[in-house]
Specification:
Order of helices and strands: HHHHHHHHHHHHH
CATH architecture of the largest domain: Up-down Bundle
Largest sheet: none
Shape: globular
Structural class: mainly alpha
Radius of gyration: 20 Å
Distance between the termini: 30 Å
Helix content: over 70%
CATH class of the largest domain: Mainly Alpha
Low-confidence stretches: none
CATH superfamily of the largest domain: MFS general substrate transporter like domains
């Protein structure tokens, strides 16, 4: 395939199906079989921890061995990790398998983003990053729809997930060519974390916090305010669909307007939207609010990543991608802890007020800092 971007996007869509299947099925099986809550929580957290630990080194590995090799390695690791989940009932196997699978997923995410950044230019990078995020979300959504396969046996979803990743792996082997940036050197020195634009790191952490906490806080908010389980499911669906429908258009704007100004706009608007649940409990009003929130939250990731590439030396694209994903992983670790503490302080509206304050604080941070763009 002449265009590596298309191959990468198709591959991540297929792979996303497996991502959307693995974790929910494991949580369901552990819960149904009476596993202690700390086992369920810890096994899930290990996947996020793997992202934090592996991502800083992934960029260096890509610079050394090539992006295609690392992508294929990540897919192979994830494939075997999925099969390892068949022994989910053995905690001594489950925990290392979760960690290993997380490393494979990190390789896949960082490598795919590097391919997109290397295959894009200043006129279409935001659009391509947005398309990547949307297709990944669609793949994950399809994966969650396959959870019912657990009825055929607790091993079935894991074999299906591994088979789907095998299809993605074979596709990349045959259709993805190696991608190198003309602007990058053959031997790239190590990039230090302090060379990353501060706003890039902050936007990645903020997205990680929101992504991992809203999905927990939203159902709690609905149930504690008298909504039925079906209505809560509509809230969640609205949030997810918003991310699919709006994100691409928001990301495309970063090719036209300043990414920094867009982050300012998103922060002030999202902060206002986060206060919506405190203003009214009308079902239609909340559905609309969660749809918009779902669209704007992931823009911190896509526009933040575009901002990152605009503000670093281009030879460091792979390593910068690794650091960006690392900070996102750190945010996903902090999110559930912060969210649960805030919910306990105010069980009805505390989370939304806190989230709004985070957005407004980030708005002020952007105003105070202005990273110098490096060509």
């Amino acid at each position: 395939m002449k265009n590596p971007l298309i191959a990468a996007l198709i591959g991540i869509t297929i792979g996303g199906i497996g991502f959307g299947l693995l974790t929910p099925v494991t949580v369901i099986l552990l819960e149904q079989n009476g596993a202690p809550s700390w086992i369920t929580g810890s096994s899930t957290t290990l996947g996020y921890l793997a992202v934090v630990l592996a991502s800083p080194y992934t960029g260096r590995l890509i610079d050394r061995f090539g992006v295609k090799f690392i992508l294929l390695t990540g897919m192979l690791i994830w494939l075997f990790g999925s099969l390892g989940h068949i022994y989910w009932y053995n905690y001594y196997i489950l925990f290392p398998v979760r960690l290993i699978t997380g490393v494979g997923a990190t390789f896949i995410f960082v490598a795919t983003e590097v391919i997109i950044n290397r295959s894009s230019n200043e006129k279409n990078r935001g659009q391509n990053i947005g398309l990547y995020a949307v297709l990944l979300s669609i793949g994950i959504a399809v994966g969650t729809m396959l959870i019912f396969t657990v009825e055929y046996g607790d091993w079935a979803p894991y074999v299906i997930g591994a088979s789907i990743m095998l299809i993605a792996l074979l596709f990349q082997i045959y259709f993805l060519r190696e991608v190198e940036s003309k602007e990058e050197e053959k031997t790239v020195s190590k990039m230090k974390l302090k060379q990353m634009p501060f706003l890039s790191l902050a936007s990645a952490v903020l997205y990680g916090v929101f992504e991992s906490s809203i999905i927990v806080a939203l159902p709690l908010f609905g149930l504690r305010n008298g909504f039925t389980q079906i209505e809560v499911s509509y809230f969640l669906a609205s949030f997810v669909i918003g991310g699919i429908v709006l994100l691409f258009f928001l990301s495309k704007l970063s090719d036209i307007y300043s990414s920094r100004k867009l982050l300012l706009f998103i922060s002030i608007l999202l902060g206002s939207l986060m206060l919506s649940p405190t203003l009214s409990l009308l079902f239609v009003f909340l559905i609309t609010a969660f749809f918009l929130i779902g669209g704007f939250v992931p823009a911190y990731y896509t526009i933040g990543l575009n901002y990152t590439v605009q503000n670093i030396e281009k030879k460091y694209i792979a390593q910068a991608n690794g650091y960006f994903v690392m900070m996102y992983g750190l945010g996903t670790l902090l999110g559930p802890m912060i969210g649960s503490m805030i919910v306990e302080l105010n069980k009805e509206y505390g989370f939304w007020i806190f989230s709004a304050l985070l957005c407004f604080s980030f708005f002020l941070l952007i105003l105070l800092r202005n990273d110098k763009i490096r060509e």
